[in-house]
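Input sequence (77 aa), recorded before submission:
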Amino acid sequence: MTTLQPTLDPNTQPANGPTSFTAERNEHEVRCGMCAREVYVDDETYRFASRAIESGLDNPFRCEVCAEEYDDLAYEG
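Predicted structure, token format:
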């Protein structure tokens, strides 16, 4: 009998959004503008955050946890 064990290999799983690990597509480190958690993003997201910061704006990037909390607060309030 064969037993299946779930495994996550960051190099074989497609990265469709920000990840907590580097992946082939997500190779740029960005810090969350709210909690400063490091997250890895693709080129497009990295350029978006970089342009905003260089323009003198606050870091517009939010990690998934902070984005969820913000959405919950906006929904309740």
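Checked by second reader. The chain has two helices and two strands.
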